[in-house]
Amino acid sequence: MVPILLGVVTIIFVLLRLSGDPVRLYLPEDATHQQIAQVRSSLGLDRPIYVQYGIYIARLVKGDLGESIRYRNQDVAAIVMERLPATLELAGASLLVAILISLPLGTLAALNRNRLPDLLSSAVAMLGRAMPNFWVGIMLILFFGIRLEWFPVSGRNGIGSLVLPALTLGASMAALLMRLVRSGMLEVMSQDYVRTAKAKGLPWRTVVVKHGLRNALISYVTVLGLEVAGLMAGAVITEQVFAWPGIGRLAIQAISSLDMSIVQAVVILASVVVMVANLVVDLMYALIDPRVRYA
Amino acid sequence: MRAATGRVRRRLPVAVRSLLRSPTGTIGVVLVTLFVLAALFAPQIAPFDPNATNLRARQVPPAWVAGGGTQNLLGTDQLGRDILSRLIFGTRVALIVGLGGVMLTSLVGVTLGLLAGYFRGRTDAIISRSIDTLLSIPNVLLYLVALGVFGPSLAMLIIVIGLVNWTTFARVVRGEVIAVREREFVDAARSNGARSARVIFKHVLPSVSGPIMVVGTLNVATIIILEASLSFLGFGVQAPTVTWGRMLADGRDYLATAWWLATFPGITITLLGLGLLFLGDWLRDLLDPRLRGR
What we know:
The complex is a heterodimer of chains A (295) and B (294).
Chain A: H1 2-17, H2 33-43, H3 49-61, H4 76-111, H5 116-130, H6 133-147, H7 160-189, H8 192-199, H9 204-241, H10 247-256, H11 260-288, H12 290-294
Helix pairs in contact in A: 1-11, 4-5, 4-7, 4-9, 4-11, 5-7, 6-7, 6-9, 7-9, 8-9, 9-10, 9-11, 10-11
Chain B: H1 2-21, H2 23-40, H3 42-45, H4 83-119, H5 121-136, H6 139-150, H7 154-164, H8 167-180, H9 184-191, H10 196-207, H11 209-232, H12 244-253, H13 260-287
Helix pairs in contact in B: 2-4, 2-13, 4-5, 4-7, 4-8, 4-11, 6-7, 8-11, 9-10, 11-12, 11-13, 12-13
C-alpha cells in the first residue's frame, strides 16, 4: 500500500509541476517581477524540483497537505475532508443500488438460462456498457426530476436528492456485476454439492441461497473491490451532473483554477479510499469463504 | 509474401460466413460502417453547417413533435443550430479520438505487456507495480488533471488517453505472453539462437494478436464514452469543433425547456458504443473460440 501511495503522490506531483507557472494565475496581470518572485519563494516554487518533491513528501508524512492558493488561510485537509462525506454517501448508496440490482437479477438470469429473463438481462447489461453513464443521469433527471417531479434534480438536500445520483452511478456498476453473478451461479449450480443438496430434498431457496449464491459470491466480492476505483471515477462525473457537493466537484473546480494543493489532496484521498476498499475486500473473503479463515 | 496473401484469402470467407451467422455481429459491422461514413462525408451528408446559428429558430423541437418543422429533423439547439448536422460532425472527433486513442494505448500497453511477460523478473515487477498504481487512482481524475495542466486539445486528449489507459492492454498481453513463452515454438526459436527482439516480434507477438484486436475494439467504445465524459466536463476538444459531450453539457442546462438537446447525442453515443461492442464480441468469437459465451 505504501509504495503504491508513493507512486500516486509522485505521478500527481510531476504532472502538476509540469503545468508551468501557477503563480501567474493568482497575481494581477501587471504584477512586478519582484511580486512574482516573492509569491514564488513563499510557496517554495523557486527551489529545484527534487527539493520541492523532498519537502512535499516530508510534509505529507507529517500530515501537512500544503496551502490552497484559492482558499487562503484554510487547511487543505479540512476543506477536502469537509466534502468527503458527501462523496462517500453517494458511493455507498450507489454500491447498495448496484448490489440490490445485480444479485437478484443475476441469479434470476442464471436460473432461467437462455430464457426470457436471461436474454433481457443480457440485453440490459449490453446497453449499460454502451450508454455513457452521465447521460443515464441526465435522462433520469429529465423523467423523474422534471417530468414527474418525484425527486430534486440537483444539490444535496435530504435523502430524496440522493436517489437519482445513486441510481445513475449504481446502474453502471450493476450491468457488469449482474453478468458476473450469472456466470458465477451457472458454474456453481452445476457442481456436485448442489446436486447433492437438491437430492437430499432441501428447500429450493436454501439450495439457491446457501449452496449456490454464497459460493458464487467469492468472485463477485473481488470484482466489487476492483470496481471501487471505477466508482470513485464515476462519482466525479455524477457529482457534476447532479451538482453534488463532494470531492469530485471540488476536484474539477480546483483543476480548472490549477489549485494544486487541493487537487493533490483529492487524488491522494480518492486513492486511499480505493486501497482501503481493496483491503476490506480481502478481509471479507474470510467471512464468505471459510477456507481462507482456516488456512 | 504469396503464402501470406493466400492465407488471407482462405481466411476471409471464414470471417464473412461467421459474420452472417451472427446477427449482432452484422448489426455491429453495419452500425460502425455507418458512423465511419458519416465522419468521412460529414460535409456532404449534413443538411446544415453545424455551427450556423439561427436566432429566429432557437429550440425548434424535432420534426415529429408539435411545433417541429421538416427543415430540422432532430430540432435545433439554444442557438438555433441544427442538431442532426452537429451529431454528424460530432462523429469526427469521437472516431478520431477513439481510433487515435486506441492506437497509442495499444502501442504503449502491448509494448509494456510484452516486456513484462517475456522478461519477467524486475522488468515485470516495475511494470506491474506501475499498473497497480495507475489502477488505484480513479482514472477520470488523472485525465482531468493532465488535461487541466496541458490544456485540452485533440492531440493532447489522445496522448493523455494513451498514457493512462494502457493498463488493460498490458495486463491482457502480459498474461497471454506468459502462457505463450513456454510453448515449444518459442523454445525452438530461442535455442536456434534468435535474439530476444526477434523472438518477441516474430514469434510471440503474432500469437497474441487475437486478444489484442478484441481488447482494442472493445476499448474504442470505452474511449469514445470517455471522450464524451471529458467533453461534458469541459475538458474535451474546444469549440468551435463539435463534440457530443459538449452537446450533452448544453442539453443538461436546457432540460426543462428542450429535452431533445440532451437526448439525441446520448442515443448517438449509445448506438456507436453498441456497434463497437457487438463488433468486439463477434471478433472474440471468431478469433478465440475458447472465450465464447463469456
